[in-house]
Write a structure and sequence with these properties.
The structure is a single chain. By secondary structure, the protein is mainly alpha-helical. The protein is built from 28 helices and no strands. The N and C termini lie far apart (83 Å).
Length: 577
């Protein structure tokens, strides 16, 4: 009996098997189903390949058990060619789904065998596992290459695997991208690494297309390339790195779409090999590492949802209601964009039972849904758009909260929630960020947009109208006095450089009451004059903050004392939004 100690640890072997199996399996599953019964140039059909892979993995448990007992590999076959012929013949009359199911069962039995191995198991046991998994899978990538006919086939291979990989990254959430992976990088480093290789293959395909060459030079030292990527990523915002990944993927896809069948298979299918290496083969290599950080339990998913919701909703708060009728950089109104986000969250409750059962429901017409929301957003009120968004988010929170707390959520269901909540929020955060005021001039312009309708409704009410009660029980004059008080508060803070902190509902109510009380004896004309004077002081104070981005302390508080505050009173004053 051999007593040689294996060079590979059990955990390393499991990881290598997982990566290799996923790369091969996901590639096969992404190919058109009508391709599986065709005889390939490599000799077998894809169905026969699957039966062959399953047959060899089925030998592993018995052979490893025999080594435990006798120290010898019984092999369970007399002739490799005859064994392969029998395995291929077993594919006849079987559907592709049946063959995939057989392979899944055989593979799970292999994994269970590996889990049962002691760390000091005989090297021959490890060899038997490796011969039929990590050492076997690479032999069949040529069959996948042979099954690829067009750029659409290659596109399907890339995109099918990209979607799962990208959604898993999105599921981690932006804050958690700063955490360390099992390999020692941060998840942000890993995303930047994936982006760099996607950009690299886009560059190679472009170079090949422009020069007419059958191949194009790649990276000489992959380790140095990777180290440089990690170094460049230090200090960068996770959201920027995510956007870089998406942009690199789009560039790669654009180049892939220009490939001809002749170009795809030139020089022994060079294109297929390099695309696989830098895309779907690469995703498989890192998938387990990424998936380890994906939330599994409802509480974990809720935490990630809140981490994504807070900055998205905070940015929307600071933007205010009046600008929501304007166009975003994407071309629709902010109301249309919010309706779009709300609409996809609203679809989660109906689809969730399907996902929990391991299936997908009917696929909606995405373009039609988005176009409808964009159009309806033009006439929907800003208040209704925001209220709908909040209600849709709350519904999803309640739905996830109701899931069994001690059970893992199927990834198909997690993907649904991630894709329509925090994975979606980050896609549109840039549109909101682009509209947020940052400099003194920006803030003055934003304030003026809201001041004009606020001031106009005060003017329209006239002297008599200022003493009339609003729907909240205050008079219009009380609203003016109250607004003066908060403008004076932010002016004091900006001029002194010191913020008043620790506001509570009680202290806010007391401040409001004091502002109203101190203006009880002030006449309508005088209080309006005071309002205008304080407004001019506000603008002058902001202008005095300088030319660059203003202090974040003031940028995050002053809006709530001014334009966001005025908007709160629009409904009772009769200002439409």
């Amino acid at each position: 009996m051999s007593t040689t100690i294996p060079a590979t640890s059990k955990d390393t072997l499991r990881r290598q098997i997982s990566q290799s199996y996923r790369a091969l399996r996901s590639s096969l599953e992404a190919l058109p189903r009508d391709r599986f019964t065709e005889k390939l140039s490599t000799g077998w059909s894809l169905n026969e390949n699957i039966a062959h892979l399953a047959a060899w993995e089925e030998t592993v448990p018995k052979r490893v058990a025999a080594v435990f007992e006798s120290g010898e590999d019984p092999k369970l076959y007399d002739d490799v060619d005859a064994f392969n012929a029998r395995a291929a013949a077993e594919a006849q009359g079987k559907t592709t789904d049946e063959l995939f199911a057989r392979w899944s069962a055989a593979h799970e039995a292999v994994l269970e065998t590996v889990r049962s191995l002691p760390e000091d198991a005989d090297k021959l046991m490890f060899d038997i596992v490796e011969w039929n998994t990590t050492g076997h899978y690479p032999d069949h990538f040529a069959d996948i290459d042979a099954a690829i006919r067009t750029k659409d086939d290659l596109f399907g291979l890339v995109q099918t695997n990209w979607i799962a990989f990208r959604l898993a990254i999105g599921a981690i959430g932006l804050p958690a991208l700063e955490n360390a992976t099992s390999s020692g990088w941060t998840y942000k480093d890993l995303v930047a690494h994936a982006a760099a290789w996607e950009d690299h293959i886009a560059m190679r395909l472009k170079g090949m297309r422009e020069t007419g060459a059958e191949t194009y030079p790649g990276v000489d030292d992959a380790d140095a390339f990777n180290a440089d990527v990690v170094e460049r990523t230090r200090g960068r915002a996770a959201a920027d790195v995510i956007r870089e990944l998406d942009a690199a993927h789009e560039r790669m896809i654009a180049e892939l779409q220009q490939l001809t069948p002749e170009r795809i298979h030139a020089n022994n299918s060079w294109v297929v090999g390099v695309v696989a290496s830098d895309t779907y083969g690469h995703y498989a290599q890192h998938f387990d590492e990424v998936f380890a950080a994906v939330p599994k339990k409802p509480a974990e998913l809720l935490e990630r949802m809140r981490e994504g919701w807070r900055p998205f909703r905070r940015g929307l708060n600071r933007l205010g209601l009046v600008p929501l009728s304007e166009k975003t950089p994407a071309g629709w109104t902010y109301k249309g964009m919010l309706g779009h986000v709300a609409n996809w969250m609203e679809k989660i409750p109906d689809e969730m039972p399907n996902r929990l059962a391991g299936r997908r429901g009917p696929t909606p017409d995405v373009d039609a849904e988005n176009a409808r929301e964009a159009k309806e957003g033009e006439t929907r009120s800003a208040h209704d758009a925001v209220s709908r968004l909040d209600a849709a988010y709350k519904t999803v929170v309640d739905l996830v909260t109701a899931l069994p707390a001690d059970r893992d959520i199927p990834f198909l269901a997690t993907r649904l929630v991630v894709g329509e909540t925090y994975g979606h929020f980050v896609e549109h955060s840039g549109e909101i960020e682009a509209a947020l005021p940052r400099t003194a001039d920006d803030f003055i312009k934003t304030i003026e947009k809201v001041w004009k309708p606020f001031r106009a409704v005060i003017r329209e009410r006239g002297r008599a109208g200022l003493t009339e009660k609003t729907s909240t029980g205050w008079t219009c004059k009380d609203v003016v006095a109250h607004s003066i008080g908060w403008m004076e508060q932010t002016i004091r803070e900006m001029r002194s450089g010191e913020l008043s902190t620790g506001w509570t509902k009680e202290t806010i109510d007391a401040y409001n009451a004091r502002s109203v009380r101190t203006h009880e004896l002030v006449g309508p004309e005088a209080i309006v004059d005071e309002l205008d004077t304080v407004y001019r002081n506000l603008v002058e104070t902001i202008r005095g903050l300088g030319d660059g981005p203003i202090d974040e302390r003031f940028a995050s508080t002053m809006p709530y004392y001014t334009y966001l505050h005025w908007e709160e009173h629009f409904a009772e004053l009769g200002v439409p939004l």
